[in-house]
Design goal:
Helix content of chain B: 10-25%
Shape of chain A: elongated
CATH superfamily of chain B: Lipid/polyisoprenoid-binding, YceI-like
Radius of gyration of chain A: 29 Å
Structural class of chain A: alpha/beta
CATH topology of the largest domain in chain A: Four Helix Bundle (Hemerythrin (Met), subunit A)
Distance between the termini of chain A: 47 Å
Largest interface: A-B, 56 and 52 residues
CATH architecture of chain B: Beta Barrel
CATH architecture of the largest domain in chain A: Up-down Bundle
Structural class of chain B: alpha+beta
Order of helices and strands of chain B: HEEEEHEEEEEEE
Number of strands of chain A: 8
Number of helices of chain A: 6
Number of strands of chain B: 11
Shape of chain B: elongated
Oligomer: heterodimer
CATH class of the largest domain in chain A: Mainly Alpha
Number of domains of chain A: 2
Number of helices of chain B: 2
CATH topology of chain B: Lipocalin
Strand content of chain B: over 45%
Chain lengths: 305, 178
């Protein structure tokens, strides 16, 4: 009976581990794999431009990679997934720039460039598609950003801050997924508690409850790690539902530490054939409050009340 | 050049300069709407700046708003919005359009818009706006049918469910001639 119970428990834990890996693996792999950028460079008449250079500059790290087009005007760049600025240059043509392109590991990015005849203009983005609009603003009278009183500091981008935000979002996405995964063993732990504490319950039921509780605790720690380690953005005041989400963390956080400690005490007492007594009696109520706060935290950012 | 000729010349040039006029955005409310299977959310900004310069019967308008100025009522969601729209790298959204000067006196205008956002440029043709005259000011309302894919923005997801591609932007602006 006990062996069967342990066997089932092992199989269940293996199943949960596989589920966990399947959920987490894509986001981890996405960071380390490379993507492809390819396309065709042509002139104004649509003829391919051979031997044009295509430079991809990582917006995050500043690293550059260059490729040249072949006789058919095509190029291909293998790049680590991320955000890039692409510059297309060829002798006798104006420089053409795509200020931002996202390279993902899953789908190849196709970026074609059309070069205009003339002297290269370094550092200035080419006017892409600007003249297509029938009533596009004329350059002679159209107001500029400085006419609106915007300073260069207000209009210039900050790649470092963008990288910080990217990292924050990446970590919080894992936090979110792990939080969802943690909910499964959390509910299972609460359900199995019904058979874990009674007088006639078997050791296997208690073992299953303990194992699920342990798994919940481990997954919870990983979930909490990604929230705690996600970079803070200076000058941001916490407002809205996320405030409630964080307040709940102050309840389920300590609860996730106290619950297993009290649980071990209760487990020992039950295994000795004793009735659960003393502070160990708080295991159940503390666990319920902890699970409730966890679910409330989850719902606070999921559903608009 | 005699004084008379100089006066005649000045009188001739005055109407030309007088024909040029400018418009200034007095106040504005821009609201984007995001739909998610679990809930809907809106982000509002009152921080847009705008100017219109008219010449030869045509007015060029530029409206600019900081991406960070949109407030959805949740600081985490706002930061996430800035991240997915690359708002730190491209902090300003600009809207350009060209309209005939006579548009101010019509009840509706269909504007061709050129919007720069998230490092991309998208064009929207014949976007209808309602025009109301209020004293010396002109009140313009309408909705820009923007989508995430127009700007190659990956739809952000919550609980592994992505938001809808449509992010219509409601526009409510009051312009004043200068």
């Amino acid at each position: 009976m006990l062996k069967n119970g342990q066997c089932n428990l092992n199989a269940f834990l293996r199943f949960l581990a596989i589920c966990l890996l399947l959920q987490v693996a894509p986001s981890v792999v996405a960071q380390t794999t490379t993507g492809v950028v390819r396309g065709t460079i042509s002139d104004e008449s649509g003829q391919p431009v051979a031997n044009a250079s295509v430079t991809a500059t990582s917006i995050d790290s500043g690293q550059k990679q260059t490729a040249n087009t072949g006789t058919d005007g095509t190029y291909k760049l293998d790049l680590p997934a991320g955000n890039y600025r692409l510059t297309f240059e060829a002798t006798g043509f104006k420089t053409f720039e795509i200020s931002s392109a996202t390279v993902s590991a899953t789908v190849p990015e196709v970026l074609d460039g059309k070069l205009e005849k003339g002297e290269p203009v370094n550092g200035k983005p080419a006017a892409t598609q600007q003249d297509n609009l029938p009533n596009a603003p004329s350059s002679s009278t159209a107001p500029s950003l400085s006419d609106l009183g915007l300073t260069p500091e207000q209009t210039q981008g900050n790649p470092r801050e963008q990288a910080l935000l990217d990292k924050r979002t990446h970590m919080l996405k894992i936090h979110q997924r792990m939080g969802l995964i943690t909910t499964i063993p959390l509910i299972a732990t609460v359900v199995t508690s019904l058979n874990a504490g009674g007088k006639n319950t078997s050791t296997a039921s208690r073992d299953l409850h303990t194992a699920l509780g342990g798994l919940t605790g481990d997954l919870y720690c990983i979930t909490a790690y990604y929230a705690i380690r996600a970079p803070r953005v200076p000058g941001t005041e916490t407002r809205g539902p996320i405030r409630f989400h964080k307040i709940m963390a102050w309840i389920h956080g300590p609860g996730m530490i106290a619950t297993p400690i009290l649980g071990i005490m209760a487990f020992d007492q039950r295994n000795k054939g004793e009735k659960v007594h003393g502070i160990a009696q708080a295991h159940g109520p503390v666990a319920i409050v902890t699970a409730g706060a966890f679910v409330a935290a989850l719902l606070s950012v999921s559903v608009k009340f | 050049m005699s004084k008379k000729m100089l006066i005649v010349f000045l009188l001739m040039t005055i109407p030309t300069f007088a024909a040029d006029s400018q418009w200034v955005l007095k106040q504005s409310t821009l609201t984007y709407h995001v739909s998610h299977p679990l809930h809907e959310s809106e982000g509002v900004s009152h921080a847009a700046r705008g100017k219109g310069v008219c010449h030869d019967g045509q007015c060029d308008f530029l409206i600019a708003v900081a991406v960070k100025s949109f407030d959805s009522g949740d600081s985490s969601r706002d930061l996430h919005m800035v991240q997915v729209t690359r708002g730190a790298e491209f902090p300003i959204v600009t809207v350009r359009t060209r309209l005939p000067e006579s548009a101010a006196s019509s009840e509706t205008i269909n504007a061709d818009l050129e919007i720069q956002f998230a490092g991309r440029t998208a064009q929207y043709k014949k976007v209808p706006f309602k025009v109301e005259k209020q004293g010396g000011e002109t009140h313009i309302t309408g909705t820009i049918p923007a989508t995430l894919s127009d700007f190659k923005i990956d739809p952000p997801s919550l609980l592994t469910m992505p938001v809808k591609n449509d992010i219509p932007v409601r526009v409510d602006m009051t312009w004043r001639p200068q």
